[in-house]
Request: fold
Amino acid sequence: MRIAVAGGTGWLGERVVAAASDAGHDVVVMSRARGVDLVTGKGLDEALRGADVVVDVSNIGTLNAAKATRFFGTVTRNLQAAELRAGVKHHVLVSIVGIDRVPWGYYQAKLEQERVALDGPVPVTVLRATQFHEFALQMLTRFGGPVAAVPVMLSQPVAAREVAVELVRLAEGEPRGMAPEIAGPEALQMADLVRKVSRRRGPRKWVLSFPLPGAAGKAMRSGGALPEGPGLRGTQTFDQWLAELG
Reply:
């Protein structure tokens, strides 16, 4: 099977490429570094020639709702239009658990991306995943200074490589709309995870946990970012990931 990975040079994308290659598939990496611009559509037709399925794990480094919504909507429409021209039969999209319950700007942008994809001309499978283990490290290092401010948030972190393997497994099958959510093996407070990373790996910081105001903060505190029911569960715990991190 020929699998094209949109955002294939990103953190999750590299793991999807590796998982697809390990499974014996022919993999095409789509990114600006490889001459494919998902926003303008440049290079898409050539990249998708002969592709059977597209796995979209592209991302944008902004928390601004309007910018994120424009990016995800544009990329999804461009991909599906090019997929239709190329005869691609399956579009697989990674999304986030809880985006329909946590009214936060970036989450609302991902929710809109799901809608655009599911309403598009190419059959779709959407996999919602909880935050990756690496999210705690990102929160610790996002800003300089001696303090890391972390919102009160219940999380059930999952290994990125386990999400990548599931995305490839879904790509090998028939389109199914909304797939069962994938999460990690245990629900934990995000501030506790950030403290663990700070102590073991650094940088050493005082981790300040604070409640976000409004409906988004309330949803995060009450488990809005956790899976709602039974589904796929990764096996790697946060402590195991941290031990691997060194």
Remarks:
- The first strand starts at residue 2 and ends at 6.
- Residues 2-245 form a domain with the Rossmann fold fold (CATH 3.40.50.720).
